[in-house]
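Exercise 7. Given the encoded structure of a 156-residue chain, write a plausible sequence.
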């Protein structure tokens, strides 16, 4: 049996140190990715809270808006502007998902929200939603437009 020299042990120790360093860097990168995902979710939440504040300021219930009960001539501007705002948010969410900055389960929820924005609950809302979509689609990411238009069109 051959004796292993001191220089071989030093080289082995050096390689193990490099390997340990790479593992540490990998763990740090994973932690940074998780922090970035949390920060993105925080930013999305802040946008929706701000949008909710516009409903509060005008005295419109967000629940009534969702159920399409709050639509009347006094809230038409708010409803239209909010729908336009939603398409900006949807486009941003789509980009974040494509860049890997959004968890799959969050994206599935966002995709359901996109489908709701594209297909409203009743005929009157559908007409407004489609008018807004036709205006906005030319300003949105082509890949998002393809995705949205591949969804079922449930408007009457």
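Solution.
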């Amino acid at each position: 049996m051959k004796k292993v020299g001191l220089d071989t042990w030093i080289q082995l120790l050096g390689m193990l140190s490099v390997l340990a360093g790479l593992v540490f860097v990998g763990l740090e990168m994973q932690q940074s990715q998780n922090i970035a995902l949390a920060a993105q979710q925080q930013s999305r939440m802040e946008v929706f809270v701000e949008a909710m504040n516009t409903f509060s300021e005008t005295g419109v219930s967000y629940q009534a808006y969702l159920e399409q009960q709050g639509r009347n001539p006094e809230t038409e501007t708010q409803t239209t502007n909010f729908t336009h705002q939603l398409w900006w948010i949807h486009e941003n969410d789509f980009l974040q998902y494509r860049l890997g900055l959004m968890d799959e389960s969050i994206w599935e929820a966002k995709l359901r929200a996109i489908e709701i924005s594209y297909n409203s609950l009743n005929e009157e809302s559908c007409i407004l939603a489609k008018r807004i979509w036709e205006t906005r689609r030319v300003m949105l990411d082509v890949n998002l437009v393809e995705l949205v238009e591949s969804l079922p069109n449930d408007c009457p």
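Remark. The chain has a mean pLDDT of 84. Students should compare their own answers with the one above.
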